[in-house]
Description:
Elements: H1 3-24, H2 31-104, H3 108-139, H4 153-165, H5 167-170, H6 176-214
Amino acid sequence: xxxxxxxxxxxxxxxxxxxxxxxxxxxxxxxxxxIAKVLSSLASIATVVGAIVATIALTSWRAxxxxxxxxxxxxxxxxxxxxxxxxxxxxxxxxxxxxxYETNSGSPSDYKELKxxxxxxxxxxxKAREIYHRKYEQFTRHYFLxxxxxxxxxxxxxxxxPIYQGLRNIYTQDDIRESNRLLCxxxxxxxxxxTQCKHEFEQVRSQAxxxxxxx
Length: 215
């Protein structure tokens, strides 16, 4: 609860207390009746104060619970992104090895082993992608993210496809320098996706922190 709400609450409480206490000195009667009314009035004040304190405590607890849950979901989302990119790199590496053997006519036994590694890393990539999609969906239940953001799983899928598709063209070049240039560009394109996504994660955390500090 921010300071403005707190001051409004305190002011309201003081007004209520002032009205009740003012009534204590406007009645006539003997001492016992006077004491009974004082105690009754104090009990009323205590009830009001207790209700307000309980409301504040409940609101604060709910806000803290929401922030804690959001932090946990954010950590899980970013961790799943790191796992996803690890599998992307591994799958890409194995694809490169397969393409190099296909374009250079490597031995059949080596090719069979490389294809096995490629298929295994592809399966790991698909599993990590599925997990990231699920973590993203869980996070956006509680926090709005634009569909145009780089960390959107569908956007990541779209950006990764050209990188995989461009691998074969790298090793079909007659000029070794051109092959190296294309490979470096492929590396840079993948690194750019990582950098942009990590930057957006930092932005999301900063925005969530601002919301927490203002609540």
